[in-house]
Amino acid sequence: MPDDARRLVTPSRGDGVAAAATEVIGGPVGRFARAGARSWLYVGGVLSSLASVLIALGVLQKNHCERMGWGAPAAFWRGCYSDLPVGVGGQSAATPWSTGGPGHTQPVITAFVTWGLQHLVPGGGTVLHQQQIYYAICAVVITALVAATTIATASMLRDSPWQAAHVALSPVLITASLLSLDILGVALATIGMALWMRRMPLAAGALLGAAVMARTYPLIIIAAIVLLATRERRTSEAVRLLAAAAATAVFFLLAAVAVGGDPLAPYRAWGSATASYGSPWLVSAILHVTIPPTALTVVALLGWLAALLAGMLRVSMRAPVRLGPLALMMLVIVLVTGRSFPLQASLWVLPLIAICALRWREHLVWAMVEVVYFVMVWMYAGVSSNPGKALAPAGYAVFCVIRLVAYAGLAAAAWESAEDVDDRMRPVVRRPAARDGADFRASSTPA
C-alpha cells in the first residue's frame, strides 16, 4: 500500500485552531509526513498523559478546599466544592445502602465503587484528614478513567485518533472532572461504543448496561445505536446488545438487593425533586413560575420521548447518519428538558464531540461558556449565606440560558461537522472504507 494511503487524518491538517496550537511543537503535520506510523493505542497513551496534566490543574484549582475543607459557604466562594468527600469521615458504612452510605443518592455501580473507595481510607485522624485521603484516591481513579475514555475514543477514530484530544485536552476537565465520579459512567459508555463499532454486540451491551447502572444518560447512546442498527439492518446485533445490557443491569440490581439495598432509591428521589441547578425549569422558578415535582417528572420523560422521536426522524431520512451527531443531538434534547443540568454533563459529551470530529473552534466556545457557568453557579449557590456577595438570581438565569444555547449550538455544529469533515480533513488518497464496523465514519446507505 502506498504511503499516502496509510496516512491517518490529523486535526492540524484541517482545523485552524489545532494547526495554530501545533506551532509550539514545530507546526502542523506536513503533506508527506507519515502521520499513520503510530497506532491509535500510541496516540491514546500520549493524550492520556496530557489529560493527567489537566486533572492536576483541576486539583490545583480546588486547592483551598483540599487544605481547609469542603464546607459551605467557603467552598462556594472559592469554586472548589466537590461531592467526592461528602459522607467520608468516621466509620465506613457496612453496605452502600447503610445509613450514610452512597446508595441512597447514587446509581448502583457508582454506589458500589464509592463505597469501596471509602473503605480504602485508613481509620483514625480527623474527618478532614480522612476526606483529604479519600479525595486523593478519587483523583487517581478519575485520572485512570479519563485515560480509559481517551484510549477508547481513539480506538473509534482509527483514521484520526488525534481527535481524541477533544476528550484529553478539554478545559472542562479542569472544572468538572473532580466534582464526582461521573467519569466512571462516561468511561464505561465510551468503551461500550468502541466495542459496538468493532462488531462485538454482547460485550458492548454489557459495558453499556453497566454504564447505565453508573449514570442514566447512556440510555441515550443505547437508543442511538439501536436506531442506527435498525437502519443498517443489523437488527440481530441490536437485539444481542439490548439483551446483554438488560442482563447486566438486572445483575447489578439484584446484587444491590442481595446486600439489603434499595437500588431504586435514587430514582424515586429524582422523581420527587424540584428543579435544580442549570435546568430551564429553575430559570422559570426564578421568574416566579414554579413547576411542581410531578409536572417536572412528566416534562423530563417527555424530553426522553422527544429525543427518541427526533432520533427516529433523523434515521428515517435518506442522508447518511453517524452515531456521534445522532447521540449528541438526542442527549442535548434530554439535558435541556431535564429537571437538572449538572456541571458534570460536560464530561458526558466529550467522547461524542470527539467522534463527531468537531472543530476546536466550536469546542472552545462551548468550553468557555462551561467554565464561566462553573464560576457563576457557585456564586449563585452562596446566595443563602450572603445575598450581597452572591450572584443575583436574575443574573444566574441569564447564564443558564446562555449555557442552554451553547449546548444547542454544539449539537448543530456536530451536524455541520458530519457533513464536511471528510472534505476538510482527509488526504487526497483516501483509505479504503472499513467494513468491520470499526470506523465511526462508516455511515448507513439510504434506506
TrEMBL record:
Keywords assigned: Membrane, Transmembrane, Transmembrane helix
Annotated transmembrane regions: 40-60, 133-157, 169-196, 202-229, 241-261, 281-307, 319-335, 365-383, 395-415
Entry annotated with the keyword Membrane: yes
Entry superkingdom: Bacteria
Protein name: DUF2029 domain-containing protein
